[in-house]
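Lab channel / #folding
Pinned by the channel admin:
"Please post every new chain as: sequence first, then the structure tokens as a reply. Keep commentary short and put observations after the output so the thread stays searchable."

First post following the new format, from NK:
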Amino acid sequence: MSTDTQTLDEAAVASYLKENLPGFEGPMDVTKFQTGQSNPTFMLKTPAHNYVLRRKPPGVLLKSAHAVDREYRVQKALQGSDVPVSKMHLLCEDDDVIGSMFYIMDHVPGRNFNEPEMPGLTPADRTGVIDDMNRVLAALHEVDIDAVGLSDYGPEGNYFERQVGRWSKQYRASETQKNPSMDALMVELVEAQPEDDGQRTLVHGDYRLDNMIFDAETTDCRAVLDWELSTIGHPFADLAAVIMQWQLPSGTEGRGMGGLDRAALGLPSDEAFIAKYCERRGLNGIDNFGYYLGFCFFRMAGIIQGVLKRGLDGNASNPERALKLGEFVPVFAQHGLDALRRG
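Reply from TO:
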């Protein structure tokens, strides 16, 4: 079986969709999205409609990784909620069609911002975009998981306990060299774990600006993308992931807000974003935010270590970028350790 992630068996896809997707008619023009490192994603343009195909990478993969079936399920469940998602069309679990599982969803037109500086926007529009990002995040954590059929989407128990355990195992499985900061961070996250406060919500797992599509004319979010890491867990992990991203250097590499004059650009402070989120959810603030921030740096280090390993093995979605991203593993680990120790 091929491990090529750059191409797609277009004839096989077209044949399958003609049989299984009502209204599908070719011819079909296929283009691969170069963004994203995990699940290869393709635009399918037809005369009447534009679709997106997202597939599990072919080849040998880490257990439980690249769960496109979970992505499909959660987005299907959220349709009609206050959390905007693309319309899901079908899930193909038959590996024989193109070599791995895939799903088809609508292409959502609009704007995607690769970095929170959002060059070219006015300060007022930047404020609006980030505020809607905040609104959607709060709405996500208020979803009634029983009502939408997702109460079994994640296990019971302490979210941080199981996540630290899971990503520690994933990291060890893809480890390519020793990293003292990561070793220390894995130990200290266990030791400093807060008591379970009972919050159990749907979480995205990789909530950030570049995983969102905004309206072409307004600052409204039209779709949240990339649900691979979603589960039932603790909402503060999603919130801390936003703040983690912002602490990185600005620009297309770090995609953070480090070094920016936020007030002049119309961008909120970390504290203001957290306060607005708490207001929307009726919370009185968050204690020990450094733990949640440290956890997010740890998890991202684990994720990009996996990307690096796939790049070295030759089955990354974008091999060249995979190797470049791998250089940041020790940086994320050290940031996580610093945040955790600050408390």
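NK: The beta strands are 29-32, 41-45, 50-55, 88-92, 102-106, 201-203, 212-214, 221-224, 231-233.
TO: also worth noting, Residues 187 and 250 are 30 Å apart (CA to CA).
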